[in-house]
């Protein structure tokens, strides 16, 4: 039986680490992105996305502006609003969202079709360019947003709008004669349809999602047929050299063994595959999910939990190809991987999936947004030298500073909806068991066989490796509590907490299973969970050529980096002995962190003249005291160099 997340309305996060990020969504990110979709951010790329809806609704005159998927800026904003309202009602925000939904409803065509690009600019070309047109991708984000808003407010208007659109899609696509036998160029509608099925119980939406997965890559490639059609006009010129592997349509999904193509498309498809495998009892689809996950996380993932190493086409390349200074590692891709990992973890009850979810959330996802919530990274490199991040070069996609907004701005609202729904990642429940997946302070209630169990988790994780868990109302028939044992944890232990609030010298019987510590409970209990996770230097597999002879510094789930602000310029000249002691120190920097310091060496260069490029000078060293900060915090103190992987100082 699959585990399910706790209803966001029943979970209250009050965490020293995450609360500042989660509360930032409502206080700063949603208002900022509201200004963005209304084109009110000075010196930022215009969005025009809300204006497109007004034009399509006949409320304003004008031309469509932006990418073909510009509607998704509004959709993901509404999804974040829905999650935020579920956690904390806000009448003014809800009224604003309702006004947007009214505009969307007016923009819907009589037959249910909803897409401002094709409605305004090319109404005669509906469904004629599935490869590039993103109609189904945009539809999927509308569906997800409508479900989130319905769950957060109980209001059906937006949901009813997208249900009409979903019915049109079901009537348009399928294996049957008279229907279009295509599938989405950018996967996403599958996830939206599955969520519609989950909230309505209408099986046709699940069947439609299954069709899109089952048809993909079977027989003659649908996209190649489209692109070779006489008179076809490209929306994106780079698609003239299109290869099916880019959209994961090179093989039937059950035959795919390696993570390929555009990383975000892959994650959305894999997430839908996992949902369908569970809902339909499809073992072959689940086995494909396992295979793809293992390839991705064991051979194609960065230490920061990012994926998609190529700056060209935002895609996977080959095993162990993980360059640090020119990688893409789109924020959306790590969000998609967290979505995929959450599903796999809830289906299999294996902790290894949440180990990766945690890594992505604490590193790449948080790096994608500034601490004030008003600037963003689309690309997440592990090494930056600002001087060579030049336009029209191989590093033009690497930005040395977060941007106010983007012309293609999928990442900022994606980060917003993820942070607003953080509560869904903490627990997995099934009516008999509660699985603790992430260590985030919160209060919640969980239905255990018709009885409400209240649960409180208190922690200063990731800075302190200890968690207090209290359960009240445990049914007399008993229940199970499963606590994830992180893959980096040593000396994992659980103790009972006595009346004085101190952990006693003994603990409950603990069964280790699939990476969880499972405890059988028959009454109310307070538990103190501890483990060790000191700062340590780690190596990569030697086959990762970019990291050969280098080390990275991690502490628990947090990956650390060196910044120019602390360590000066030319960080590439820094060398580290991985046996050197590391000092941990609490700092007020970035709202409170554990900073790390350690001794290192740096190539001096004093003997080199300014006009000398090559020479026979011997290497001379200077001793340096190095300071490392969490990777997620980099670039919050201005432009400067940054590096995660440091050169190792070998003792011969």
Automatic annotation (TrEMBL):
Domain Non-reducing end beta-L-arabinofuranosidase-like GH127 C-terminal: 536-647
Domain Non-reducing end beta-L-arabinofuranosidase-like GH127 catalytic: start-end pairs: 11-423
Location of the Non-reducing end beta-L-arabinofuranosidase-like GH127 middle domain: 434-498
Any Pfam family hit: Glyco_hydro127M
InterPro entries assigned to the protein according to its UniProt record, in alphabetical order: 6-hairpin_glycosidase_sf, 6hp_glycosidase-like_sf, Beta-AFase-like, Beta-AFase-like_GH127_C, Beta-AFase-like_GH127_cat, Beta-AFase-like_GH127_middle
Designated name of the protein: Beta-L-arabinofuranosidase domain-containing protein
Organism: Enterocloster hominis
């Amino acid at each position: 039986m699959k585990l399910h997340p706790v209803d966001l309305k029943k979970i209250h996060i009050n965490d020293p680490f995450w609360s500042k990020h989660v509360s930032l969504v409502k206080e700063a990110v949603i208002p900022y992105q509201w200004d963005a979709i209304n084109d009110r951010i000075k010196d930022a790329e215009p969005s025009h996305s809300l204006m497109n809806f007004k034009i399509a609704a006949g409320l304003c005159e004008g031309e469509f502006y932006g990418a073909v998927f510009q509607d998704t800026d509004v959709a993901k904003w509404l999804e974040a609003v829905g999650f935020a309202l579920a956690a904390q009602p806000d009448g003014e925000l809800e009224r604003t969202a309702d006004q947007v939904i009214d505009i969307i409803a007016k923009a819907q065509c009589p037959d249910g079709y909803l897409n401002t690009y094709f409605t305004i600019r090319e109404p005669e070309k509906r469904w004629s360019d599935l490869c590039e047109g993103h109609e189904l991708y945009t539809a999927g984000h509308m569906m997800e947003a409508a479900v989130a808003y319905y769950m957060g407010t109980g209001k059906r208007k937006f949901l009813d709008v997208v249900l009409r659109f979903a019915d049109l899609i079901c009537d348009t696509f399928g294996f049957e004669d008279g229907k279009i036998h295509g599938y989405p160029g950018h996967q996403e509608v599958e996830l939206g349809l599955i969520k519609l099925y989950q909230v309505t119980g209408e099986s046709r939406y699940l069947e439609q999602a299954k069709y899109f997965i089952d048809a993909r890559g079977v027989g003659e490639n649908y996209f190649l047929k489209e692109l070779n059609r006489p008179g076809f006009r490209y929306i994106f010129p780079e698609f003239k050299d299109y290869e099916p592997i880019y959209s994961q349509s090179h093989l039937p999904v059950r035959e795919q063994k390696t993570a390929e193509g555009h990383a975000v498309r892959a994650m959305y498809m894999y997430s839908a595959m996992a949902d369908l495998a569970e809902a339909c009892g499809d073992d072959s689809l689940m086995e494909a999910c396992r295979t793809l996950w293992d390839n991705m996380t064991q051979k194609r993932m960065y230490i920061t939990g990012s994926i998609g190493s190529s700056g060209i086409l935002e895609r996977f390349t080959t095993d162990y190809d993980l360059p640090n200074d020119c990688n893409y590692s789109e924020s959306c891709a790590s969000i998609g991987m967290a979505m995929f990992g959450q599903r796999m973890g809830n289906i299999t009850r294996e902790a290894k999936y949440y180990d990766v979810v945690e890594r992505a959330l604490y590193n790449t996802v948080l790096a994608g947004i500034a601490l004030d919530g008003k600037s963003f990274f689309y690309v997440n490199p592990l090494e930056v030298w600002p001087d060579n991040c030049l336009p029209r070069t191989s590093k033009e996609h690497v930005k040395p500073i977060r941007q106010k907004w983007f012309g293609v701005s999928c990442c900022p609202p994606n980060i917003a909806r993820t942070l607003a729904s953080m509560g869904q990642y903490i627990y997995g429940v099934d009516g008999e068991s509660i699985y603790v997946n992430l260590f985030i302070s919160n209060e919640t209630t969980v239905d255990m066989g018709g009885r409400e169990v209240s649960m409180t988790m208190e922690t200063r994780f990731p800075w302190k490796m200890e968690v207090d868990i209290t359960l009240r109302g445990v049914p007399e028939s008993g229940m199970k509590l499963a606590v994830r044992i992180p893959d980096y944890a040593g000396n994992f232990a659980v103790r009972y907490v006595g009346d004085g609030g101190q952990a006693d010298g003994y603990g409950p019987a603990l069964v280790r299973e699939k990476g969880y510590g499972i405890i059988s409970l028959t009454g109310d209990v307070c538990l103190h969970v501890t483990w060790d996770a000191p700062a340590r230097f780690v190596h990569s597999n030697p086959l990762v050529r970019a990291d050969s002879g280098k080390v990275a510094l991690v502490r628990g789930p947090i990956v650390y980096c060196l910044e120019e602000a602390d360590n000066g310029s030319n960080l590439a000249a820094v060398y580290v002995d991985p046996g050197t002691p590391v000092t941990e120190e609490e700092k007020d920097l970035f709202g409170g962190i554990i900073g790390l310091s350690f001794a290192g060496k740096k190539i001096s260069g004093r003997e080199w003249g300014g006009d000398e490029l090559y020479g026979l000078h011997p290497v001379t060293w200077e001793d340096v005291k190095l300071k490392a900060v969490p990777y997620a915090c980099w670039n919050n103190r201005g432009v400067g160099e940054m590096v995660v992987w440091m050169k190792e100082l070998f003792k011969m």
